[in-house]
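tool=predict chain=A
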Amino acid sequence: MQYPETNGILTFFYYKDLEKAAEFYEKIMGFQLIEDQKWAKIFKVKDNAYMGCVDGNIGYHKYSDTKPVMLTVIVDDPDEWYEHFKKNGVETINEPHDDKELNLRIFLLNDPEGYVIEIQKFNYTIP
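tool=predict ok
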């Protein structure tokens, strides 16, 4: 089956404090702000992968204390990212560790409003 072409992925997260979330993703995560729509801010993560922070009082979805989604950031060196977070006063949920079952090196942290961010390295070549 042939499918229409796609150009990338953009996932939105909804916040009570949009400015605090946007500052975290720009200044701590190093994501590039490419579009400021006032109540939504879109960041380039890599190539054609984007994430957006949305004012949870205005956007399609509303802010919720429950965060049933996780942002996974694929990196070459999770330990370097762990040190980066420590240096910037960002607490993590756990330390970098190897998940032998999934063949990954990973650790977790929360963003300013409780979304879980997983920093992950595949210990094998992904397609």
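The two ends are 20 Å apart (CA to CA). The beta strands are 9-15, 32-36, 40-46, 49-55, 70-74, 97-99, 104-110, 116-122.
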